[in-house]
Every structure is written in C-alpha cells, then in structure tokens.
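Q: Protein A?
A:
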Amino acid sequence: MGKRELLLVIGFVVAGAVLYHATAPPPPPGSEGFSVSRIIQQARRAVQGNRAQVDVESTRTEAIDASIEELHLTVRSVELTVIGEARTDVQFGMKVNSTGYDPKEARQYAEATELKIDRAGPSLAAEIKYPRQARQRAWLTVRVPSRLRVRLEPSSGRLTIANVAAVEGTAAGGPATLTNIAGPVTLNLRGVPLAVDGAASLRLTGRGVETKLQRVTGMAIVQSNGGDLTLSAITGPLEIESRNTDVRVEQIRHLKAPLRVNATNGSVRIAGLRTEARIDGNDTDLDIVLDAPAPVTIYSTSQDITVTPPAAGYTVDAVATDGRITIDDGSIHASGDTNEQRASGSVRGGGATLTLRATRGDILVRPPAGK
C-alpha cells in the first residue's frame, strides 16, 4: 500500500468516527472522560442548545407556633402567591420549570431547585436556590395563618397576596395584587402594575407604575414618578407626591382631613372633595370637583386651575399672575389687567374659603354640577 492509499484510509476512518459521535446518543453522565467524543458532544450541545423542558411539583408543610409572626421571602424568577387562611401551619406548594438538553437532564435541574426554609427569631424565612445550569422558573404558593406579616426581598414575577396581617417589600418585573390586608402595606415598586384593594394604611414608592388603590382605611402616603395613579374609597388622611404622573382621586366621601397633593408635570383630577385640602401643581393640569364646602387651597405654576365648586355656599379668593380669572358661578367678577387679576367674595351666602393662586396660568370656576 502506497503513502497515498494510506492517507485515504486514515481519512475515511476519521470521517467515520466523527459521523458516529455526531449522531450517537449522549454517553451516561460522568463517563465521558477527556476524549474526542466528549469534545464533539459538547459542540453538539452548544449548537442544539437546551431544547427540552420539564415541570416538577412539590409540597411542604411547616409547623409553627405563636412565636412566628412573619413570613420572610427571598425569591426571584418566581410567580408568588401568598394566601392567609384560618390555619396553624404554613404550606408551600412549588412548581419548577427547567430547561435541559433532554427531558432527563431538564428534570435533574428542576429537582435540584431547592426551597430552603429557616427560622430567625419571629420570622419563618423561605428562599429559593436555583442550579446554575440551564434556566429555571418557579411558581410558589404559600398558605399561611392570616395573623402573619409578609416581608419580601427584591423579587420579580407576578405577585399575589391576600388576607394577611401586613405586607412590606420591593418588587419589579411582574404585576402585583394585594387584597384585604388587615394592617399596613409598605411597598417599593418599579415598572409593574399594582392593585391594592383593602389595607389599614399604605406607604408606596413607585416608579413607572400603573397603580390602582382602593379601600385604604387609614393614612395613605404615595410617591409616584411616572405612570398612572388612581385612588378610590380612601378614608385617609392622604398625601400624594407625583412627578410625570396622571393622578385621579375619586369616591372620597369619607376622606379624613387633610388631603395634600404636590405634583410636577402630568395631571391631577379630584372628584367628590369634601374636606380640607392643599394642592400644589407645577406644570400640572389641575381639575378639582368639590361636593361640599371645605377650606381648599390650590396653587399652580405654568398651568391652569379648573374648579367645580359645591352647590352650597362658599367664599372665593383668587389671584392669577400672567393669567385670567373666569368665574361662572355667582356674580363675582375679576378685576385687574393681563399682568394680574383678582376675584374675591361670597357665593350663595358664603362659607369655607376656596383659595386659588395661578402663575402663568388661568383660573376657571365652573358652575356646580347639575346647574
């Protein structure tokens, strides 16, 4: 056999070996060793990726006593549901979805996802640990005694909490829904829709959040930067600080004094106001409707003030600098020139004072609703 023929034979052998390893099933885990076959297998995995997905479900119950007052959750990449019930233990139900090269490997990674539970003083702490390989996603449902507080470390994914004593935490990445919280709610959210229906008090810091808040029976303090903010059936008192936010406050018949609003850019719409209020707007469109006389003060810079007064008597005190005043209720007329206009007096016998100040904006007092 000549040199040329020998090279041809060697070439066919190598080509056959490569073809075999490229099409053969993967060897058992741990048996690859350092070999050409392992290199070829790794290359094939890199090209084909983790194509398989597997779900694994598990449950776990933790007995607790009266010394445990709080559930402390450190979770990420999880859809979390916490439900308060008439029970004396805590039940965890978890589903994990993991990718893998094949179903067997995906299942191994899903089963390697660990729910760690620890006790630290009055807290029952739960944490999810994911393996580094592949990609996992979890769904965690926790059923707790209604007397427990819930504290969340920064997390992502959908969040649902109902019927617990209190909620505190930070979240981003998924919508959050809180219902029937017996005590205070303290949240710091970014870029997620939030709905709260029922809480004893509220302190919210939101950035780029679409927020709907209702049935807060105590003090509510909201800081919003971007997004939409709707509040209804708030008992109050209520403080709002907003920037680049469209704010709407409604159904506030039982709102306790005071109402404080400080807004920059965006808009503020308040319907049904019946209590003392101070509203400051900077480049903010203000539209306020009163259902009853109340001492209300409104300041605006670089935008107009529109007010619908109550049907009962009130007193108006209005000044517009670099703007105009129009009062379509009663017989009060503005005086002054384009640099400054003033209007003051009693309407329908007088009452609580409606104080209006606009700089580089107009003031419009419309007729009461129904007139």
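Q: Protein B?
A:
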Amino acid sequence: MKIEKIPLGPLGTNCYLVMKGQEAMIIDPGGDADKLNAYLKEADLKPIAILLTHAHFDHIGAVEELRDMYQIPVYVHKAESDWLSNPNLNGSALFRMEPISAAPADSFISSGEMSVGSFVFNILETPGHSPGGVAFVFSEEKWVVSGDSLFQRGIGRTDLPGGDFEVLVETIKSKLFSLPDDYTVYPGHGPETSIGDEKLHNQFVG
C-alpha cells in the first residue's frame, strides 16, 4: 500500500490518495478537482471511494465533482451528516468566498474496523476540531491520517462551529497518543510528523 499527498483547494489542504495496485481511496479532496483528476489519470488509478476526516469547507471542495465524475461513494461521520450541504456548518459561509456545498454523504463512518474494497483500516473518532472528526489508522503501514486534529507541533483550531479545545486535547491524548510512537502522522495541513515526536514536542498537548 502507498500514500500520496496532494495539497488542494484555497487553503492547500492535504488530500491523500491511499493506493493498492491501481485502486485508490481519496481522503479529503479540498478543491482543484481537475488537478486531482489529472494525477489519477496519469497514474492510471481507479478511485473507489471518498473518505472525509471531517466536513469543513476546505476538505470537501471537490467532493461533488469527483463523486459525479467517478460515481463513487462519499463517507463522513454521522455527527456531520448535514454539513456537506450546509455552508453555515461547513464554515464556507463564514469566510469571504463562494459558499461550498455538496449532496449528503452516501455512508457513515464510525469507530472500529472499516473496509472499502480491498482496503482494511481502523477508525478513531477524534472530536474537538469538529464534532465528527475521525482519523484513519493503517496499522500494517504504521500510518494515521489525522485530519485537522493533530499537526506537526500544532493542533486544529477550535473556534469554528462545534469546536471544543478541551475535547480536542483529550482526544489527542487518549486516542492518537495511544498509537505507537513510530506511527507516521499525515495531517490535514502541513508536513508529516510522528506520534512519538508530537508526544515530546507538541506544546499544545502538555
């Protein structure tokens, strides 16, 4: 299995392609559908699903176009089931930008083991940045795609709808920091890090 980071959208959100053979799962397509589509075609990849760590506008900007283009399902946590279609909840209405919306998700994500096609991975519910935040854990590869909960030397903002600083810190300590130190963290923004490094150096999670 391989993973590729492609920054997309107005905030350069990290979209990830998790690939096995010629199949790929798309995680958090924040915008620039044409750019992502060009990459998929050049690499001869077949997308089979769109997975969302959460439904803020900068993570969902290309959802509708890609879903229509490839006829693939979209997965999000049930706590944010109505965020895709609601610019006030997904945050796009709060900024000076064209409101972003998409049709509702096709399926819901919950904690525990999840399989999509031949991909098998685990879900950690990681609220705090948003109520339905999740992380995707690939145990064999020692990866975690953390969304906007944990960054290199930082954490997600908690001043948007449904954010809660105390909940986020507890989420990181009890869920993400329960993973082994050698797990690579692939965050929603910025460079990769590791669980061990963040335990030692992340000043927000003392």
